[in-house]
Amino acid sequence: MSTLTPDASLQGRVCIVTGASRGLGRVMAEALVDAGARVAAMDIAESEALVAAEAARRPQDGRLFRILADVRVPADCESAVAQTLARFGAIHVLVNNAGIGTRAINAVYDVKPLKFWELPIEGWHQLIDVNLNGIFHMAHAAAPHLVAGEFGRIVNISTGWVTMARYGDSPYGPSKAALESCTAIWAKELAGTGVTCNALLPGGPTDTQLARGAGTRAASSATTFLKPEIMAAPILWLASDRSASWTGRRFIAKDWDPSLPPDEAAAKAASPARELPAII
Q1: Alpha carbon separation from 169 to 56, 60, 103, 110 (Å, rounded)
Q2: Alpha helices of the chain — where are they, by DSSP H?
Q3: Neighbours of 169 (CB within 10 A)
Q4: pLDDT at 249
Q5: 9-45 residue pLDDT tens
Q6: Which residues make Cβ contacts (< 8 Å) with residue 153, sequence separation at least 6?
Q7: Active site residue 172
Q8: Burial status of residue 279 (CB atoms within 10 A of its CB: 0-12, 13-18, 19 or more)
Q9: How far apart are CA 148 and CA 64, in angstroms?
Q10: Spans of all domains in the chain
């Protein structure tokens, strides 16, 4: 049984995917639309690829709706939620994918990493504002509607534990460690509401602009890049009714076995439950 077989519960489900113009976000947004969901694809800038996908693949049904908005701006996030409600009448799933990497503040970080006291202060604030404040702004705007509907899925896109403590990867690592802390806390606070909150990560360097950049890692033959498409099957399962009993957990897309039934694949891809998580 293929894990890409769409679950019937995804038909008509309304999802917001941030950072949807490329990379992991685009893969997840298009997978959800192809599975029958209605998707507000949100990003800070227009994407020719996403425009082409909307025009060429789905000219009639209008299930892919593009929103230009900045997750760093609370008013933009409130507006994105309001636009989604006006267009589709509901919100069921929020995928917090928008993010930037260390390369945004140090273009050669993987060959010349900076120590934390060498970082430009404005760069620290820029990255934290997108990667951490951005997920809070979106969840803060969407959660009241999810709770009121007594159903919802919040999926925060994370990274590996090694990256969270890797030399020269501050503030990216700390931003994702905080994201996983938010995931654990929000799952507890949402308990009993019908809304779940989980983390999803690729499980290694992924073939996206964020990971490859302008040629530093790309020049290394030792780096094996995962395909962004590995995120499709996990996000379909997490957005479906099948994931209802899972909350406060992290799922590693690389460990998703497409030869297994979806629930078994999800259990295999889930990190062990930890009452007291530790980074150091």
Answers
A1: 39, 44, 9, 9
A2: 23-34, 48-57, 74-88, 121-128, 134-148, 161-164, 172-189, 209-212, 232-239, 262-269
A3: 21
A4: 97
A5: 999 999 999 999 999 999 999 999 999 999 999 999 7
A6: 92, 93, 94, 195, 196, 198, 238, 239, 243
A7: yes
A8: exposed
A9: 24
A10: 8-269
Least confident of 49-58, 109-118, 187-196, 199-208: 49-58
Q: What proportion of the chain, given as a percentage, has pLDDT over 70?
A: 87
- What does the alpha-carbon distance between residue 215 and residue 231 come to, in Å, rounded to a whole number? 24
pLDDT, average across residues 253-271:
96
- Give me 93's structure tokens: 């799933």
Q: What's the pTM value of the predicted model, to 2 decimals?
A: 0.91
CATH 3.40.50.720 fits 8-269, yes or no: yes
Looking at the chain, the number of H-run helices and the number of E-run strands are 10, 7
Instruction: Name 121's Cβ contacts closer than 8 Å, sequence gap at least 6.
Output: none
Nearest-angstrom CA–CA distance, 97 and 208: 13
| Unique residue bearing structure tokens 């395909």 | 227
Angle CA 238–207–219, to nearest 5: 155
Q: How confident is the model at residue 132 (pLDDT cuts 50, 70, 90)?
A: very high
Name the active-site residue from 88, 109, 161, 172: 172
* Tokens (6 digits) for 129: 């504002």
Question: What is the per-residue pLDDT across 76-118, written as a single tens digit (0 to 9) for each?
Answer: 999 999 999 999 999 999 999 999 999 999 988 888 999 999 9
Q: Which two tokens stand for residue 32?
A: 């959800």
